[in-house]
Amino acid sequence: MVEALLTERPAELAAAGAALVVVLWGLTWRLTRTVVTIAHEGGHAVVAVLVGRGLTGIRLHADTSGVTHSTGAGRGPGVVLMFLAGYVFPPLLGLGGAALVAAGHPDVLLWLGVALLVATLVYVRNLFGAFAVLVTGGVFGAVAWWAPAEWQAGFAAALCWFLLFGGLRAVRELARSRRRRRTRTSDADQLAAITGVPGGLWTGLFGLIGTAALVAAAWIVFV
């Protein structure tokens, strides 16, 4: 099986391997984790708008944390969906992106990424957040505009795997932080307060959805 993949899908394996190294190596993870945070807060923002809440701002911090502010009722299905969206959005974006890359449309993925980042920038309310979104969007735009097709495909594929692996690492960090009682204001804790369902179960659900997205992406790309 592995030999067949090495022969038939070397570029795809290289993209996945590179993304996995970036996520697992502490130095590169610290330098790139903000991209996952942007996707995380973007998930909150998109769902907040879809369920009819008022989106008032997004803040991204240098420690790779972030927060999305919205107005509306403090309880109800819409709020649950909004808090649920954060940790599941990066792997779901990775899954959707993998489908586009597998279909031969990495350029569409990159330009969609630029459009989403421009929309995000409108709501960013701090300097570091604006800088992070601008740099990320600039990289996406530069690759989409100037890079040859094969470079676009490789970059887009690596980005998808990065979101998939990075989303799962973010959930693992959340679980570890909650075990050490370093946070009681996370999305899982907010969901626990709203629904009465323990935060650990919500954390497990984040991980389950992320794992399912990873398996589905691997099926799309390699099978």
What does this structure look like?
The protein has helices at 2-8, 10-24, 26-50, 77-102, 106-123, 127-146, 149-179, 187-195, 199-222; strands at 54-60, 66-71. Helix 5 crosses helix 7 (149-179). Helix content is 78%, strand content 6%. A hairpin with a 5-residue loop joins strand 1 and strand 2 (66-71). The longest helix is centred in the C-terminal third of the chain and has 31 residues, at 149-179. The chain contains nine helices and two strands. The protein has a two-stranded antiparallel sheet with strand order 1-2.
Report the structural category: mainly alpha
Residue-averaged pLDDT: 93
First and last CA, distance: 11 Å
Number of helical stretches of at least 4 residues: 9
Point out poorly predicted stretches. Answer: none
Strand order of the largest sheet: 1-2
Give Rg in angstroms.
Answer: 17 Å
Topology as H/E string?
HHHEEHHHHHH
Short account of what is shown:
78% of the residues lie in helices and 6% in strands. With 223 residues, the protein is mainly alpha-helical.
List the helices and strands and how they pair.
Layout: H1 2-8, H2 10-24, H3 26-50, E1 54-60, E2 66-71, H4 77-102, H5 106-123, H6 127-146, H7 149-179, H8 187-195, H9 199-222
Helix pairs in contact: 2-3, 2-7, 3-4, 3-7, 4-5, 4-7, 4-8, 4-9, 5-6, 5-7, 7-9, 8-9
What labels would you give this structure?
223 residues, mainly alpha, two-stranded antiparallel sheet, globular
